[in-house]
Amino acid sequence: MHTETLQQFYERTKQPMPAELASQTNVSHFNVKQRTCLNRMTPYNRRDYYKICMIIGDGMHLAGEKETPIESAGIIFSNPGVPSSYHAISESQTGFYCLFNDTFLLNSIRQEIRYRSALFNPAIPAVIQLDIAGQERFRYLFSEMESLLSTTYAYRFDMIRSLLQMLILEGIRLQGPVTSENTNDRLISRFFGLLNQQFPVDSPENPLRLLTPAAYADQLSIHVNYLNNVLKKSTGKTTREIIHERIVEEAKTLLLNTDWDAAQIAYTLGFEYPSHFNKYFKQNTQTTPLLFREQLRQSH
């Protein structure tokens, strides 16, 4: 199954390639545009970026093996790991879309929020039908992001991240509660509470204490397999994957916002040797910590 990159998206849609994508890898990227339907059907594939698309028109969304019709208006939260496509049915197709990568988010959305959204959790349906009031709310948020992106204001991306989080939270509100047993909900809440207590890391003298699924299960007084099963069912991710994602996000934040060297960051995040941290970071980001820091600071 092909995975479309951001660069390939711009090539496929015949749009100018953003300068940062043409010259560097692992850079922060965000874009928002009004939607015009040049192709009646988008390719069925995975992506290495997130995309939120507000559709005004009739169409059919295919994700995995599930088809979901959109009648008049809807919004699609596309999870990068789920192969999907959209087939336009009505002639009139308008709306907005935004796309961005993990580097742009940089820890701005808490994990317990992430796993309530189809954007990050493949277990949740991607399509939400919109009534008139919903269309107006999302149109406002997209328009504000579009307006900010066209400015040179120094903190425009910080404001865009806030609007993006509002957009994601509004989607969670409209989709309604995720069906789950109350005892499981409480366990998930306690797990993320424990996870969040460890972050952000504020000093190399206070390294992470809980590093493994077993350590979290012990704190929650449950078997590690039970914790893993509950989280996998609710979030689509294993306990280990969730912990690793949070550690990688914290590593990115520390590389961008502190002057700590790689050895200090490695120790703080629970790695005995800097070489282990370098290998771990590269496996998860396809770049080294120092190169990531250099590229990100150049783009800010």
From TrEMBL:
Signal peptide: none
Residues in HTH araC/xylS-type domain copies: 189-295
Keywords, in A-Z order: DNA-binding, Transcription, Transcription regulation
InterPro entries referenced in this protein's UniProt entry, alphabetically: Homeodomain-like_sf, HTH-like, HTH_AraC
Recorded superkingdom: Bacteria
Keyword Transferase: no
Membrane-spanning residues: none
Name the UniProt record assigns to this protein: AraC-like DNA-binding protein
